[in-house]
Fold each of these.
Amino acid sequence: MLVLLVFVLPKIVFRNFPGPAPDSYLYGNVKYVPKGGFPAWLLARQREYGEVFQVWLLQTRVIVLSNADDVRFVTAEMNFPKSDGFVSGLSPFLGDGLLLIDNNRHKAQRRAIAARFNQDFMKDLHLHIEATMASFVQILDRAADEGSVLDFDAEITKFTLNVICRSAFGSNTDFLNREDELPSLVDAALRHSAKYLVHARYTWWLGKLAAPALFETAHKVHEFVLDMIRARRSESELARDERPVDLLDIFLSVPGMDNNYVASEVSTFLFAGHDTTSHTLAWLMYEVVQRQDIMHQIQKEVCETVVLKEGENGFPWPSFDQVRQLDYLNMVWKETLRKRPVTATGTYRVITDDVELPGTKTKLRKGTEVLIPPYLIHQNERYWYKPEAFDPLRWTRENSLGRHPYALQAFSSGPRNCIGQIFATHEALVVLAVLFARYDFKLACPPEDIMEFHSLTMRPRLRRQSKLQQHKGAQTYLPVRVFRKSSKA
């Protein structure tokens, strides 16, 4: 009888709601979702069932939304909380950081952090990027000189982790030029979290037994972070006065917060501050190398608009203020966020009252889980003309007039949107200005050999059937060839 109530009855009650029929009463629709292909699978269902439909994740009914008015209602007007299943799945790694904390505590916690996200901090970030860029340029120079294939996604991920550690947590560790444990630990924690997220709502009560590898990896990351926190707390006042303020100072300045709280915020920024930015940069590279007209326009703007100085480390470097003049490059960045949103499936929220969604007029009961995938909204023809095309010019001021303000969900929306979006955008524009001023790039494989692969984030990945992948053996993500601009005729 209990099996019937839990697994069978709900699927019968809601059988007339739009959406694919469950493949089984036990697994729902999960069994036939391709590995790494959840966003594309959802998009296919949207095209079949419309802007609101249901899917069954095991025995949990989830309503998938891609109407911008419904999105505004859920995220901004009502600000419905993150679902327990979503929080349970990520909390072993991210703890009580801004991403997962409940709405009651979120406002004050966010305000305390956001108050320090000022221009002085951004200028310090700019300098940290320059320091890290020197190592990245050496890697690219070597690839260009040797004519070797470079895994751009893998290298840019190490780079962004270096930046977040330097600028946010005062770490001078160089992850680019040596093998280090932290990048592999963070990557493993994200992969294990993605797996745990599927069943956490049912197995959380098992504690560490529910996901031993995740809890072990998360513990190692937290120990690394706690060591950084302890060192900072024991820092002399003189040493503190001689260095720029960083995010760790900000977290430690919030009254009443202990080391575990600070560690949760650090872990959240380790994830949100590098993984999302790095994969977006990789997708931008993938799109641009296929469009020489776009690459040349970027290079033209960088050369004409920005006076690039040879920095102390021997590479061109834009000033903080010059970065703001890169209008076309910013449009390319925005278009990448639209077409290839790395947070492709978004977050799960729970409806806390019986409501009617204003856009689709769909009635939802209290307790219903909803999912707002940016991947679907960004492919919705209601808001985007030819959404499958990569077109930076859709972001000109003229073409943006009248567009729904909630049609772009790359950084989410409402009170719980991404606090670091200005941080990410500045970092991206600086990096891209340097790269396209100094190099040309080409894909080292046919474009169709690159697939979208979604775990917690969506990154480019070389297909296993690719000849290059079979030759390299180890998983490759975005293979490119690098050419110094001065070396090409």
Amino acid sequence: MFSVQWIHLLTITEIVCGSISATLNSFLAYLILTRSPKEMGPYKWLLLYTTIFEMLYTFVNFFGGPSVHTFGSAFIAFLDTNSSYFAREVDEIFVYAYCFCFGFSMSMFSAHFIYRYGAVDE
């Protein structure tokens, strides 16, 4: 079992990393919109969509904050509703959204690398 100190450290780490993620992804979106060269073409929009999705993922993780554990090929996400700021139904939606975001991020990264492979291969 996890100790209380470990859970407290994990919570602080999630808050700090979530704040850093939101800040850096916002800055990245700004740079993509204002500083990317025209030669990037549609790749600019793929980068922007990925960044916006990662900001959504940060929001879901930051406010929903489910605990996720993996072992081998098993994956479980759960949320302590007793320490949550939201109603049980909202917490349930956050867990669903987190699982969706996790799966979608894998497919989004795959599409991203396939696009880059096609762009380099030409």
